[in-house]
């Protein structure tokens, strides 16, 4: 069962999302809130699999909300700590982004969001996106992917993002796959063009994300441009 925390400033929208997701097989709504600060608290207390947050939900502190949920601070150790127990996995964050709101989506991605979906998505698309994000898949619409790529290309400081990862950590094949990912190719297209199996492509993408410290495929796109592996089109 996939548990979802809904973060949305509009009570009617929260009601609609709760009814939609709660009625979907395999999904359950763990909680809901209109507040960014409350979302952080509930994410820690309820440990949902997915946090569904609207781009408008928490106003000016929205990016900080995403950051604090994706990268929770670790409490200071007690004077006589108990034996450590495995830390629960951090919830994955799916952002509902309105059309034309790509700058926020790109910033939320950098803050730790793992997926984006347009607010005009169908109910079936939303349910599928929640399931995919919970399963560890990156979710982003093709149109928003292109918009985010364009946003990266327009960055005046494209190489000043503070990346500690050097391209030398990637193998030659991983670089080929990363260039293909940054070009917007699907796994199937990459497999066909590089003459490798789709499962191999998926493995390469997973290794790339691990090496560059990314949680979502589209973060790899940003890294490809920021590192200079892919250059903005003239």
Overview in brief:
The chain is α/β, with parallel strands linked by helices and 234 residues long. Helix content is 47%, strand content 12%.
Summarize the topology.
Blueprint: E1 2-7, H1 11-23, E2 27-33, H2 36-46, E3 50-54, H3 62-70, E4 92-97, H4 102-111, E5 115-118, H5 123-134, H6 142-153, H7 172-182, H8 187-194, H9 198-212, H10 217-226
Parallel strand pairs: 1-2, 1-3, 3-4, 4-5
Please, could you describe this protein's structure?
This protein is α/β, with parallel strands linked by helices. It folds into 2 domains: 124 residues, Response regulator (Rossmann fold), CATH 3.40.50; 64 residues, Arc Repressor Mutant, subunit A, CATH 1.10.10.10. The protein is 47% helix and 12% strand. The protein has 10 helices and 5 strands, in the order βαβαβαβαβαααααα. β1, α1 and β2 form a beta-alpha-beta unit. It is globular and about 50 Å long. About 9% of the residues have low confidence.
